[in-house]
Amino acid sequence: SPRLNAELLLADILKCKRFDLYLNFDRPLNEYEINKMREYLKRRANREPLQYIINKAYFYKYEFYVNSKVLIPRPETEILVEHTINFLGKNFNGNILDIGVGAGNISICLANDLPDSKIFGIDISTDALEAARINSQKLLKENNLNLYILDILNSKEIIEFIEKNCPDKFDAIVANPPYVSIDEYANLQKEITDFEPKIAVTDNGDGLNFYRSIAENSETMIKRGGKIFCEIGKDQSESI
Fold first, then answer.
1. What confidence tens digit (pLDDT) does each residue in 142-163 have?
2. Rounded to whole angstroms, how far apart are CA atoms 62 and 58?
3. CA 182 to CA 193: how far, in whole Å?
């Protein structure tokens, strides 16, 4: 979408909304703005994602801060958020574990729409957790989200985490884990392979490692009768 990309880049430089560009169509750019636009266009022409250039990604109802250390929130992940909220209900007051918190987009949306719940967001990346903290400070309405560093593929770490932070176990788990297989990863567009963190895209295996870990540790993590909500890749449903 070259026109949309150009408009969003220019709107960021001018610190205005896209609509304002049309209201000020004849306004000339000054030298700084022209040079900045050239810089942005050069980066975008090199296939760097728009969201990393302007450090913004729009997800659900919010504008999230993003950088190259976190996966860019995708519109399809909004379906995961919406389904989880609709299934649990607005009055849900249990404990939810968000596996792979990234920029915090899933956790923050759940925390704001389910204000009586308590969200535990985990990630193996300290850089991702820092981005999630920035977004929490900006967007979180209640103090119902806590962030932790944790390797979900390490069963010992999971047990210690549960015993320390949620001994009653979780009522629900939400996850958008790295589900691209290592074979598929090589064929993705350059915006992903050259710029997005590999650790957030592929599990360096068949794309199912995180689902295996969730399944194998489910009795440790989740209450009997609890729910697990996951985003999955194409053609993975039967295996999962």
1. 999 999 999 999 999 999 999 9
2. 6
3. 11
Distance CA 197, CA 180 (A): 13
From residue 107, give the alpha-carbon distance in Å to each of 8, 120, 145. Answer: 26, 8, 7
**Tokens read off for 41:** 């266009």
CA 35 – CA 184 distance, rounded (Å): 38
Query: 3-state DSSP: the chain helix, strand, coil percent, rounded to 5?
Result: 45, 15, 40
- CA–CA distance, 233 with 214 (Å, rounded to integer): 16
CA distance 48 to 80: 26
- Alpha carbon distances (Å) from 151 to 87, 121, 124, 230: 27, 12, 5, 17
DSSP structure class, residue 60: T
CA dist list (Å): 150 to 47, 130, 153, 220: 32, 14, 9, 15
3-class DSSP assignment, residue 42: helix
Q: Residue 52: which H helix or E strand, with range?
A: helix 50-54
Query: What interhelical angle do 77-88 and 105-113 show, nearest 10?
Result: 30
Average pLDDT over residues 106-123: 98
pLDDT exceeding 70 applies to what percent of the chain? 100
> Scanning the structure block, which residue is given the tokens 């929130």?
73
Within the chain, what is the greatest distance between any pair of CA atoms?
63
Contacts of 90 by beta carbon, 8 Å cutoff, 6+ apart: 113, 114
Q: Are strands 170-175 and 145-149 parallel, antiparallel or unpaired?
A: unpaired
